[in-house]
Each structure stands twice: as C-alpha cells, then as structure tokens.
C-alpha cells in the first residue's frame, strides 16, 4: 500500500536580513525577542504541518498553540492581531481561528515544483460558512465529508467582525487583547451584539462617561466581563434654555 505524501517541508527560507522586514520590526519593537521568537516559531509550525495551515479553533488546540508560542494568552492574541494588520497572516481565516501565511507557501513553492506536486492552496471561506481546501480537511475534532478531491468541514463559524464593530463603538480603546478575549468568551450573536452596541450608545450620553473627559469610562474588557450593558444608565440631562423676564428664551 502506497504511503500518502503529506504537504510539509523540512525547511523554509530565513534570509540574513529578515529582522529588517516590516513584520519583525513591529514585533521586535513591541515585544523584543519574544516577538522575534513568536514569528519564527509560527513559521516553523506552519511549515511542518500538513497543508501549511493551523487550525486552533477548539480550546485544547488553542491552549497547545499558546504553550508552543512561549507567551501568555493576551500576548498571543495581541501578536496575532498585529500579524493580521500587517497582512502577514490571512484575516478572514483567522476569524475562524485558522492560520494561513501565503508568503510562506510562496517561498516554498519550488519544493513542490521539484516534487512535481501541486503547491498547497489556501483554505477558502464559502458563503455557506464552511471551510474548503484542495486536499486536506481542517480538523477540529468533528467529522469531515469527502467529495472527490475537495474536503469540507461543517459548523465552523466565520466571524463577521463583531469584535471590530464593538471596538470601533467603544470610546475608551485600552487593552485590546484582553478585550478580545472577553468578547470571545461572551461570543454574542447578532441580537446580543445589537443590545451591547445600543447600551454603549446610551452610556456615551451618561453623566459618568461624559464628566472629566471620560476619565470614569471603564476599560472595555472590564465592561464586558461585568455585563455592564445590563446596567441602568442615567443619561446626562440636556441643559434647560434660560429665559428672559418676559418668559421667552434668550
């Protein structure tokens, strides 16, 4: 019985001037050597994983990923968000906790050319909210259905940028990594997100959030963890127009 070949590589290019690239410059500037190590540990893991993508969508795999990256969960989320912003990893797939680096695959394309094999293709988010990939299924502990050469994984929720919507609406932008973790724990559906956004809109008009240049606005992670959208909100009353002696507004 023929052995099934896996789409992995034992090496990838590591140029001598890699540290001068934009991605590493930003990571090292913010996280020092931890940023440098995180990036190359991630590339090593992607290179050695079948299909060159990582699925960390279920809690055990996410915790293993954090442990292998060598930093805490908050830092992991912050760095992954930076990699998305720098377009180092695919934004849409990261919404489903699937990690894909197109540049890495491009850099190892010659390996597959020498093997006379097709270079692995990026998993694709479909309108039916499934993930499809040319040869390999994305494993999340759920069963996959094979149809010809295409493998589909059902029940992966594609993110609709709900967190981005919340972050844009919240007036105090502090501790984004902690906030994203708190948001994902709540995992609001469209209805709850609408309630949360409406509560933020009302809170912006409240006495506490308006006084002293917003000094008393809670950090967003604390606001989410405390389910503060359920609070009774006292809006700042509109000032009454002053009137003259004849009773007419001045």
Question: What does this protein look like?
Answer:
With 250 residues, the protein is α+β, with helices and mostly antiparallel strands. The protein has two domains: 19-153, no CATH class; 162-230, no CATH class. It has helices at residues 22-31, 33-48, 59-69, 73-85, 91-94, 102-107, 109-115, 162-169, 176-186, 190-203, 207-210, 220-225; strands spanning 53-55, 98-100, 124-125, 131-133, 145-147, 150-153. It is elongated. The model is unreliable at 126-131 and 136-160 (pLDDT under 50).
Structural class: alpha+beta
Number of strands: 6
Strand content: 5-15%
Using only CA atoms, what is the Rg?
24 Å
Identify the strand order in the major beta sheet. Answer: 3-4-6-5
Whole-number tally of structural domains: 2
SSE pattern, N- to C-terminal:
HHEHHHEHHEEEEHHHHH
Give start-end ranges of low-pLDDT stretches. 126-131, 136-160
Percentage of residues assigned to helices: 40-55%
User: N-to-C terminal Cα separation, in Å?
Assistant: 94 Å
- Enumerate how many helices there are, as a single number: 12
Quick check: average pLDDT? Answer: 81
From the spread of the alpha carbons, the general shape counts as: elongated
Taking the sheet with the most strands, its summary is: 4 strands, antiparallel
């Amino acid at each position: 019985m023929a052995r099934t070949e896996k789409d992995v590589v034992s090496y990838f290019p590591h140029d001598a001037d890699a540290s001068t690239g934009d991605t590493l410059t930003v990571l090292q500037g913010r996280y020092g050597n931890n940023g440098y190590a995180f990036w190359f540990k991630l590339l090593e893991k992607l290179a050695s994983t079948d299909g060159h993508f990582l699925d960390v969508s279920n809690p055990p795999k996410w915790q293993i990923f954090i442990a292998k990256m060598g930093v805490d969960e908050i830092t992991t989320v912050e760095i992954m968000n930076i990699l998305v912003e720098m377009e180092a990893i695919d934004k849409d797939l990261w919404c489903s906790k699937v990690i894909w680096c197109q540049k890495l695959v491009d850099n190892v394309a010659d390996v597959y050319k020498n093997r006379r094999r097709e270079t692995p293709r990026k998993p694709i988010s479909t309108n039916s909210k499934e993930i499809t990939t040319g040869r390999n299924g994305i494993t999340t502990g759920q069963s996959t259905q094979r149809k010809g050469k295409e493998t589909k994984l059902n029940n992966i929720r594609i993110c609709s940028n709900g967190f981005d919507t919340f972050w844009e609406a919240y007036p105090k932008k502090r501790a984004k990594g902690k906030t994203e973790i708190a948001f994902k724990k709540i995992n609001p559906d469209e209805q709850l997100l609408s309630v949360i956004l409406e509560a933020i809109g009302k809170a912006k008009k409240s006495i506490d959030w308006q006084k002293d240049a917003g000094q008393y606005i809670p950090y967003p992670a604390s606001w989410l963890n405390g389910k503060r959208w359920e609070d009774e909100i006292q809006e700042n009353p509109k000032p009454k127009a002053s009137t003259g002696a004849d009773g007419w507004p001045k």
